[in-house]
Design goal:
Radius of gyration: 58 Å
Strand order of the largest sheet: 1-2-5-3-4
Distance between the termini: 151 Å
Helix content: 55-70%
Order of helices and strands: HEEHHEHEHEH
Number of helices: 6
Oligomer: single chain
């Protein structure tokens, strides 16, 4: 019995040692599993969070997709409507294309027409200035109070004072005036296309009738006809290029309240008439034009 006791005790101790190692190993394995479990649990939590974020993003994307689908449907509807309108407009544009083209051509033609008018006006202004210079050169150093030559709004005016041309209340041209009118006639005859009007003007002092003349109307007319008659008979001016008119006291150039004003108003004016027929020819439509 005693002989077997040590053997039994050794076997027991050996058995206890083996069990302790397994226990410790089991503990280590458990700890490892516990760590692995915690790691997996953390990973699962992360996955759940990612899943939630992805679901949120998915929901947002679905919302955006729905919005885009609605916008797309709206665009499709508008596109269809616009397409129908464009089809209608295309019909109109086809009908009006030639008219639009013609309108553009008309604009170009009218622009050229305006430029032509401007050139004609500039040319006329240049001729007027040359005429004025020639008249002043021909007349020479006359007193500016007795004769005035000017251009106003494209028209040349030659104003000759009453005291130079006529005696008071008379309509016969003086000898001194004949010299001046001869110089004017010489310049005008060198311009065969020129037409002019001679206007008689008086102040506002009533004319006392003498049996032939009744008033300032008569006096102004007779003075104008005396001048054109002289230009025709003495200086060979073409009567078809002249006209005579009396304006009485009704077109003053100064205030009749003063002596100087009255003197300025008593005048004979030669008006170089613009060639209105040539101007209106520019306004007439060209042959084969649009008539506009």
């Amino acid at each position: 019995m005693n002989r077997w006791l040590p053997l039994l005790l050794g076997a027991f101790l050996l058995s206890s040692c083996v069990s302790s190692k397994k226990f410790k190993q089991a503990q280590a394995d458990y700890a490892g599993l516990q760590t692995r479990y915690q790691t997996l649990e953390g990973t699962l939590a992360d996955c759940n969070r990612d899943k939630g974020n992805l679901q949120k993003e998915k929901d947002q994307l679905n919302t955006k997709i729905n919005e885009l689908n609605r916008e797309l449907e709206f665009v499709k509807q508008n596109y269809t409507q616009a397409l129908n309108q464009l089809e209608n407009l295309s019909v109109i544009s086809k009908q009006q294309a030639e008219s639009i083209k013609q309108s553009l051509q008309n604009i170009g033609a009218k622009d050229a027409y305006i430029q032509n008018l401007q050139q004609q006006i500039a040319y006329k202004d240049s001729l007027n200035m040359v005429l004025v210079m020639n008249l002043k050169g021909a007349i020479g150093n006359m007193d500016d109070k007795d004769i005035n030559i000017k251009v106003d709004k494209g028209v040349v005016y030659i104003d000759i004072s009453d005291k130079l041309l006529f005696k008071s209340g008379r309509y016969e041209v003086t000898d001194q005036a004949k010299v001046v009118l001869g110089k004017v006639a010489l310049v005008l005859k060198n311009q065969p296309d020129i037409e002019f009007m001679v206007e008689g003007h008086t102040d506002n002092v009533p004319f006392r009738g003498n049996g032939v003349l009744l008033d300032n109307w008569d006096l102004s007319v007779k003075r104008a006809t005396s001048v054109v008659r002289l230009l025709q008979k003495d200086y060979g001016m073409d009567p078809m290029k002249m006209a005579a008119a009396g304006r009485g006291e009704f077109h003053p150039v100064a205030d009749n309240a003063t002596t100087e004003g009255k003197a300025s108003n008593r005048r004979t004016r030669i008006v170089i008439l613009p060639k209105l027929d040539q101007f209106f020819q520019l306004l007439e439509p060209k042959q084969g034009g649009d008539g506009q």
